[in-house]
Amino acid sequence: MSQETTITQATGEITEAVVLDALRTVKDPDLHKDIVTLNMIRDIKLCGGIVSFRFVLTTPACPVRDQLKFQAEKAVMAVPGVERVEVTMDAEVPKARGVIDKSEIQGIKHIIAVSSGKGGVGKSTVAVNLAVSLSLLGAKVGILDTDVYGPNVPMMMGGNDMPMVRGNNIVPPVYHGVKTMSIGLLNPGDKAVVWRGPMLHSAVNQFLRQVEWGELDYLVVDMPPGTGDVQLSLAQMVAVAGAVLVTTPQEVALSDVRKAYSMFEQLHVPILGIVENMSYFECPNDGNKYFIFGNGGGEALAERYGVPFLGGIPIAISIREGGDLGKPVVIGQPDSPQAKAFQAMAQNVAAQVSIAAIKANKALPVLNLKK
């Protein structure tokens, strides 16, 4: 406690220093530092017994937003003489600095790769609902479908518009608030794409650098299955904030995701965590859970590698229907258990990106996002 704080407390005067000292007792549970040190408290204003300030989070998808707001209000209300606390919640997604030997894409703060070791685990479904969830929470988001042989993102996002061209750049259409790009928008219908490795590399480069992404907090990249050319190209071209690995509980999927983990480790791409899709089926009649593909495999794998378990997504008809109809479940049935599971997963992903960025940065700039 500062000398100024001690004096002002003795006289009953409320000052900015007193308020800041009170707020230093509140710590971010993920970053393990107090919110004043993290530069989250801005624009303190004092008017008699009324204290107001802005609380700037590291992501609009912060999973502990309400908890931190409550703790901050409680800490300031404990200051003698304070009658009311008014908190405005803002968010700014910090961009990690100090990236070596990687060309940044102007305007894009973080690239998140959603990957799996095999097909059929619902990777694209996770990527689409992750992107839309982040957008609904107030972030500026894009999704890039790099699975040129099986581009499912356009159907899942409900889009089939041919992108506009402006100069030498492609203008991505926007679906559900998310800027969207896929070879499926440029090559609609059932015509197959038959490309070799160098063409894939060139396509990924064009999708990253010749698309008008604008200002994005997150670019979610839906990767093709396996450990091939596209994964290597992405890691070589840009700094990837991290990879989200998608699996299902059964051993055959876990075995493949272990290979995906090894691949990203060799490419020096951080693992943000593991998502277990199709975790269980909850019977609507009796509420019992049935673990069709096994139980706890994704969580055990996360524990084995020492990475976060980002969440388990239950299997449900509504998820499949949402993908077929182009209305992700977080849009079509936002209050369903499945949507809430995706929303919680998105918040956990955003938290892991923020943790990595904060560790690399000394200060956070301010950006007003949707409250």
Protein architecture, described:
The structure is a single chain. This protein is α/β, with parallel strands linked by helices and 371 residues long. It has 2 domains: 89 residues, Fe-S cluster assembly (FSCA) (GMP Synthetase, Chain A, domain 3, 2-Layer Sandwich); 253 residues, 3-Layer(aba) Sandwich (Rossmann fold), CATH 3.40.50.300. It has 13 helices and 15 strands. The strands form 4 sheets. An 8-stranded mixed β-sheet has the order 8-9-5-10-4-11-12-15, with helices on both faces. It has a 3-stranded mixed β-sheet with strand order 1-2-3, with helices on one face. A two-stranded antiparallel ribbon has the order 6-7. The longest helix has 24 residues. The two termini are 33 Å apart.
Quick rundown:
Helices cover 37% and strands 21% of the residues. It has helices spanning 3-11, 16-23, 65-77, 123-136, 153-157, 183-186, 197-209, 229-237, 251-266, 297-305, 317-325, 329-332, 337-360; strands at residues 41-47, 50-57, 84-91, 108-115, 141-145, 164-166, 169-171, 174-175, 178-182, 216-222, 242-247, 271-277, 281-282, 289-290, 309-313. The longest helix is centred in the C-terminal third of the chain and has 24 residues, at 337-360.
| Helix content range | 25-40%
Q: Give the neighbour order of strands across the main sheet.
A: 8-9-5-10-4-11-12-15
Which spans have pLDDT < 50 for at least 5 consecutive residues?
3-11, 362-371
Given this structure, which CATH class of the largest domain is correct? Alpha Beta
Annotation field: number of helices: 13
Distance between the termini: 33 Å
Count of structural domains: 2
Reported by name, the CATH topology of the largest domain is Rossmann fold
Write down the secondary-structure element order: HHEEHEEHEHEEEEHHEHEHEEEHEHHH
Structural class comes to alpha/beta
Please state the overall shape, judged from the principal axes of the Cα atoms. globular
| Proportion of residues in extended strands | 15-25%
Number of strands: 15
Could you name the CATH homologous superfamily of the largest domain?
P-loop containing nucleotide triphosphate hydrolases
